[in-house]
Amino acid sequence: MIWMSIACGLIAISSCLLTGATLRFLKRRAILDHPNERSSHTTPIPRGGGIAIVVITLILWAVPVQGTLEDGILFVLCGAILIAAISWFDDIRPLSPLIRICVQALAVAVAVNALSSEGLVFQGIFPAWLDTGLSCLLWLWFINLFNFMDGIDAISGIETVCICGGLLVLAAFQDATVPASWLSMTLAAATLGFLWWNCPPAKIFLGDIGSITIGFLLGWLLLKSAIAGYWASALILPLYYLGDATITLVKRGLRGEKVWRAHREHFYQRAVQSGKSHGTVSSAILAANFALIGLAYLAVTSPIIALIIATMVVAVLMIWMRG
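Below the sequence we write its predicted structure tokens.
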């Protein structure tokens, strides 16, 4: 753990430096996120800064640790590269939602096929073919909701670090190998380096290449925890993002609106519109996520109780956001 901690410190520094270089490149090329219906900022900000996180994480995930790679990692890396490439094109020149979702579905299908050899996500409740299909749909939804929720300074960076931190806590119970823990640690460390530039007031945004690819990687880590038997913990760690995005988009869908269009109806966006600062809202999410990490720990032995309390924590957070 000592050498891993030192390595993660070096990863965070490298990510910070690479993000700074990316910021200068994006400014020169005028690859900017201009304010629109979804935006909570008022001036153009460079987007695509997540490329630093993606490049560093994928390289490190491909390096054998203690002479071994995590099962299925090569399929995940291929899927992540495919998603990152199409997302980068989308950052430069917006693509059709249909093209994006088809590429994401292909990457998810390839990676889930590798996961199926490890076990069932739903613990045998459904037949194997249905378990695989539902896993694909859940993963695809998580990728896109992670992108939808990336709308204010530092929010997705905080979410990524907290989910990875919670997964490391779970790793202690899973008797996880060093390579398995290494995956969460490297993603968290690379994200910490990015947060130096993304904390309020943000100088750079993740862009689709960051938010969509990170959503893909986190989805895989969470599914692996569910397969290992820690389904409640895997549900609790991202529960705020799941709750906010799902409730908001279901409401929009019931009103007959196109859910993929830009909007400002998420709970965190309403909080900013009501006068709360980006830093205040992101700090509240950080505090709630610390509670969710503790509840993910509790869920190892008391899953139902932990889920009930976690739901209450997220409900209180969203009520506070709505004022």
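Residues 2-28 form the longest helix (27 residues).
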